[in-house]
């Protein structure tokens, strides 16, 4: 399960890097609605640690867990505006599937 979350995070960061967000190489910010100890939170912290290690400290990630920067719609807007560079966002259907 952790591998799947880590792959998702790697994909998200790679996609954001290709889009060319307003992030500087030294200071990226991440968002997560879940509390400390939740699997997504643990994976994000590990991902931040690995990115800093693998880039020799050129890229550092500061993670904000537990919705400290606002709700999911707030975080999505912050991504759009360049205030956040990554996050774990929930996706769902707005309607129920027909049977």
Blueprint (SSEs and pairs):
Layout: H1 2-19, E1 28-31, H2 39-54, E2 61-64, H3 72-81, E3 86-87
Parallel strand pairs: 1-2, 1-3
Characterization of the model:
This protein is mainly alpha-helical and 99 residues long. It has 3 helices and 3 strands; from the N terminus they run αβαβαβ. It has one domain (2-87). Helix content is 44%, strand content 10%. It has a 3-stranded parallel beta sheet with strand order 2-1-3, with helices on both faces. α1 (2-19) packs across α2 (39-54). The radius of gyration is 14 Å and the shape is globular. The mean pLDDT is 80.
Task: Look at the structure and give the mean pLDDT.
Answer: 80
Supply the helix-strand structural class. mainly alpha
Global shape: globular
DSSP strand content: 5-15%
Order of adjacent strands in the largest pleated sheet: 2-1-3
* Count of β-strands: 3
Number of helices: 3
The level of helicity is 40-55%
> What is the terminal separation in angstroms?
30 Å
Sequence stretches where pLDDT stays below 50 over 5 or more residues: none
Could you say how many structural domains there are in total? 1
Write down the Rg: 14 Å
Give the H and E element order.
Answer: HEHEHE
